[in-house]
Amino acid sequence: MTDFPGAPSGPSTSPRLRVLAAMSGGVDSAVAAARAVEAGHEVTGVHLALAANPQSFRTGARGCCTLEDSRDARRAADVIGIPFYVWDLAERFREDVIDDFVAEYAAGRTPNPCLRCNEKIKFAALLDRALALGFDAVCTGHYARIVELPGGGRELHRAVDAAKDQSYVLGVLDAQQLAHSLFPLGDTTKEQIRAEAERRDLAVAKKPDSHDICFIADGDTQGFLAERLGRAPGDILDADGTKLGEHDGAYGFTIGQRKGLRIGHPAPDGKPRYVLDISPVDNTVTVGPAAGLDVLGLTAIRPRWCGPAPVGAGRYTAQLRAHGEEVPVTAELAGGQLRVALDTPARGIAPGQAVVLYDGTRVVGSATIAETERRAVAEI
């Protein structure tokens, strides 16, 4: 049997697996399922119904989990020739992803719901159920690679297509979860995937990708939060505590935000101001110059390792945002917390986001940013 592109680089005699393919209704997961079948595995497709009241159709290219997506996934499964089911995980998704998202913003943090969904839904709730039903692995359309080690064990690596690489949001997976995961697309570019989908007569070949936050179909995050948290007026301050304006809810701001501050007069130096701090305790938003965003170091909590936890201080690169660039760092696990010192300052880093450590293309692990160390505005 020939391994499919992106599969663990094991011997050609690798066993036939019972594989549960998570099919979102998009082109990536459809091709991933097809490749798993082509590799000789016994594949069953499943679509996760994550919305309690799904709308019939997508709004442009935003969102997922609509009835349209479910039907697209079923049609793809029919073309591939595999059994297909819909599993209702809407309640679990609401508790673990949506409620967590709202609570994090209410606490002045900036969460990553895609990362949380991978941790709590696709590779916890879904994988746990799959293993209980006798499946050997879960297959998804994520762009990442799993490399099998000669002596056993697996490593998670970046995808070949850097523009589509999704290893950042998979950095929450531990060794046990990686042992039961397949990412067939890791060695392929997006253009190749779409071309392959056409050759396979999959109707989703040209379907637009979903983007932004899947459960906020219209892209209005502030409106979504306001509906759930209500209006909470507070002050917008500069670094010395001078009131510059008012807001309707501190949850509507993120660290590094420049637009929509509603400050009536310019800064004394005429330069733009950015959100530097969000305080849920006194419901204030502090703004200041761009240089005030420079993060020199950070402390992160709830570390999760894709293999053995590192020992002592080490040199890595770190990705600090879903679409951010890697930066060289020194990181050390101490007292259950990850302490990271950046070689050069990075901007737009907020508590609640994830820091993912890399050793070359290998994903070492991730943790949730709790605190950042920045220059005091008075020093700028």
UniProtKB/TrEMBL annotation:
Molecular function terms, GO-annotated: ATP binding; tRNA binding; tRNA-uridine 2-sulfurtransferase activity
Binding-site positions, ATP: 22-29, 48, 141
KW tRNA processing (keyword) present: yes
Residues at the active site: 117, 214
E.C. code: 2.8.1.13
Site (Interaction with tRNA): 142, 353
Catalytic reaction annotation: S-sulfanyl-L-cysteinyl-[protein] + uridine(34) in tRNA + AH2 + ATP = 2-thiouridine(34) in tRNA + L-cysteinyl-[protein] + A + AMP + diphosphate + H(+)
Physiological role: Catalyzes the 2-thiolation of uridine at the wobble position (U34) of tRNA, leading to the formation of s(2)U34.
Family listed: Belongs to the MnmA/TRMU family.
Protein name: tRNA-specific 2-thiouridylase MnmA
Species of origin: Streptomyces tateyamensis
